[in-house]
Design a protein that fits this description.
The complex is a heterodimer of chains A (181) and B (484).
Chain A lengths: L1 H42 L6 E7 L8 E7 L12 E8 L5 E5 L10 E3 L4 E3 L6 E3 L4 E3 L8 E2 L1 E4 L2 E6 L7 H8 L6
Antiparallel strand pairs in A: 1-11, 2-3, 3-4, 4-9, 5-6, 6-7, 7-8, 10-11
Chain B lengths: L1 H14 L2 H8 L2 E3 L9 H20 L9 H11 L3 H28 L8 H24 L3 H14 L6 H9 L6 H33 L10 E2 L4 H12 E3 H27 L24 H9 L2 H25 L3 E2 L6 H23 L8 H4 L12 H12 L22 H4 L2 H10 L13 H12 L12 H7 L1
Antiparallel strand pairs in B: 1-3, 2-4
Classes of the chains: A alpha+beta (181), B mainly alpha (484).
């Protein structure tokens, strides 16, 4: 009889011990999960986006489309050359601009501008876009991604900071296009 | 010799491992399984060990930093003595690993090894296949060059299409807003810690089950697996007609593993390491990204899927494939094992092999990609220029200058995105040519805004000459009749 009692007491202590570990584990899981999810939670409210200059307006002659490069606004010490990002700047008529992300709207490969035929061509799966970024042919479901832009002090500023992807986020990015100030 | 025996005995008295190891090594296996068909699992294990050793050797030099990784690969290739060889061993080892794991899968599938009682062995094996592919992809990322960079972009673009959580998942995949240091660090952690750790654990379980349940017997047509009787039948088979695994069967495993290692070493010596290609600088846009060999089929598939079907097929297709593999032992856990009486199984393997082979071949060839420099580097064949009028030659110039050649081949040269135009005048008459050039359509951009009327006239004049001399070009019959 006494043996059974002691066994059940030990069994209870084991359960208490397990419960204690469970509580501590759950408490530890909260910071661990938050740490793991931090890249996503920061990006939720466009926390990665900010305005930056891609150069003085003289760099972008009217009627032409030129490659511009900039340093991504959010950088880490180890980023090296990967934080150098390119975009295509189209000066429509000195008052209206279009700034296209370099990434094809199909799968993100870098599109190239061909001024002779006024087309953007993608080297991966052959997506093609007209000079205004609208889809011309190939597998993309939509036109090129556009950055918001504004002109301040003779500089062309764009809102950027995040790799554009064809998912739903890109649609949100596009919604507020053309905010020429 | 006596000293060695004494030292061995001293250790074994304390470790107590000699007896179980001897028992495992000499356990009886069905006689026919001492076969060359049963060597792929052990070969995969051997290559895994090679990958671990060479991986550790590479980690001595490799710097998992977006700013330094590419330079450290150059150091490995050029500055460290035989660094290129270790890289080549690791790279070729990964190719052999994927190939051998796939062959192993086909073999156990065709031999019915997933049936009772080895369902869990199969399921663990499916996860091992997924991890092997995961290692191949993350390894390709660690070779941090242009292909790796844009490959990550493709991965992010696919991930972003997941409903609801797409953008979040992209941030988690990249570890930040763009492909940069945090991205490489997390792929390094996956490739070096997470997946290999899981893999070793799963391989342990996989092997343990092979030992406990016994190797799958050679399937005989008509010998049906039934849950109620199988275990007794298998025991009788191994007792009556069994041989000890060591040495009756193991010598083939050992020889084949040695042959595989030798093949990897030969490939490494004669063909060298993979890349790295250009620097992972996203402002260098003169690049044509291509995935590694084992993902070329996917690259090809992505160019053929119609836009509307692409997202669902990309997201649901792999999930269905994995689920089918996982539930296979539950829907076909009993019955016939021999491939000679399982025509659908054989056809499935053939279909998968032909599809993957075809897509891989196409991915290697990539006819859908425009040849980006054809307009400036591939000339118009001279037979299409000699004896032509000034206007037609002017049209040939427009053809080059407007990059038509990037997508359309002439005499086999140039892009294959659009149809070859050597006989286009047989298919389209003048009005149709003008319409096609100006309005585009059928996956061709419209050039109406990019060509002025003289350019269009000249281009169409040139296109009208593109037909064999002996065959008259297409013409508008009703118009000809009206004009007569």
């Amino acid at each position: 009889m006494s043996v059974e009692t002691s066994t059940s007491r030990r069994a209870l202590l084991v359960k208490v011990g397990l419960l204690f570990n469970g509580v501590v584990g759950a408490a530890l899981a909260v910071p661990i999960v938050r740490y793991l999810l931090s890249p996503a939670t920061r990006g939720k409210d466009n926390g990665y986006q900010s305005w930056l200059s891609v150069g003085p307006l003289e760099q972008f002659p009217a009627g032409e489309t030129r490659l511009a490069t900039y340093r991504n606004p959010v950088v880490n010490p180890g980023d090296g050359q990967t934080a150098n990002i390119a975009c295509w700047v189209r000066n429509v008529d000195n008052r209206n601009f279009q700034v296209f992300a370099i990434n094809c709207a199909h799968l993100g490969c870098p599109v190239r501008w061909f001024p002779q035929s006024n087309l953007f061509l993608c080297p991966c799966h052959g997506g093609a876009y007209y000079q205004d970024g609208s889809r011309a042919s190939g597998p993309p479901e939509r036109g090129l991604f556009e950055h918001q832009y504004k002109i301040e002090g003779g500089q062309l500023l764009i809102k950027t900071g995040q790799l554009p992807t064809p998912g739903p986020s890109a649609l949100i990015q596009l919604s507020g296009k053309k905010t020429c100030v | 010799m006596r000293l060695i025996n004494k030292v061995g005995a001293w250790f074994d008295f304390r470790l107590q491992l000699g007896a179980p190891i001897t028992e495992a090594a000499t356990h009886r296996v069905p006689r026919e399984t001492a076969s060359w068909f049963y060597v792929f699992g052990s070969a995969a294990l051997t290559v895994l060990l090679l990958q671990i050793v060479t991986g550790i050797l590479l980690a001595l030099i490799y710097v998992p930093s977006a700013g330094e990784a590419w330079n450290s690969l150059q150091t490995l290739n050029h500055d460290i003595s035989l660094g290129w060889f270790i890289r080549a061993l690791h790279g070729w080892g990964s190719n052999f690993m994927v190939a051998i794991v796939l062959i192993h899968l086909v073999q156990v599938f065709l031999f019915g090894a997933y049936k009772f009682p080895r369902e869990l062995t199969w399921i663990v094996g499916v996860f091992l296949l997924l991890m092997t592919l995961g290692m191949a992809f993350t390894g390709q990322v660690l070779r941090f060059d242009q292909d790796a960079y844009w490959g990550l972009g493709i991965g992010a673009s696919i991930t972003s299409r997941i409903p609801l959580i797409g953008p979040w998942a992209v941030s988690l995949l990249l570890g930040g807003p763009i492909i940069a240091a945090t991205t490489l660090s997390r792929f390094f952690a996956l490739h070096v810690f997470v997946i290999p750790g899981l893999m070793l654990a799963f391989v342990g379980v996989h092997l343990l089950m092979v030992l406990k349940l016994g190797i799958n017997e050679w399937p005989m047509p008509g010998r049906i697996v039934r849950r109620a009787t199988y275990l007794a039948e298998y025991r009788e088979l191994t007792h009556k007609d069994g041989v000890p695994f060591v040495p009756a069967a193991v010598w083939k495993d050992v020889l084949f593993s040695g042959f595989v290692l030798l093949s990897i070493a030969c490939c490494a010596v004669y063909l060298g390491p993979f890349g790295p290609s250009g620097q992972p600088d996203p402002t260098i846009i003169q690049t044509v990204p291509r995935p590694d060999y084992f993902f070329l089929w996917l690259y090809a598939l992505l160019s053929f899927l119609p836009p509307s079907a692409e997202t669902p097929i990309l997201l649901i297709g792999p999930a269905i494939g994995i689920v089918v593999l996982l539930v296979l032992p539950f829907i076909a856990g009993e019955g016939e094992k021999s491939w000679k009486r399982r025509p659908i199984a054989v056809l499935t393997i053939l279909l998968a092999a032909v599809s993957l082979g075809t897509l891989t071949r196409l991915g290697d060839h990539a006819p859908w990609s425009p040849v980006m420099n054809a307009w400036s580097s591939v000339p118009i064949p001279s037979q299409y220029l000699s004896g032509r009028t000034a206007l037609e030659r002017r049209g040939a110039l427009v053809f080059q200058a407007k990059q038509c050649h990037n997508c359309h081949a002439l005499d086999g040269q140039g892009g294959q995105r659009g149809p070859a135009l050597d006989r286009v005048a047989l298919r389209l008459n003048e009005d149709q040519l003008i319409r096609q050039v100006i309005q585009g359509g059928g996956n061709m951009p419209a050039y109406g805004k990019n060509l002025n009327p003289p350019e269009t006239t000249a281009l169409v004049a040139f296109l009208k000459t593109l037909h064999p001399l002996a065959i008259a070009p297409a013409k508008d019959a009703s118009r000809s009749a009206a004009l007569e």
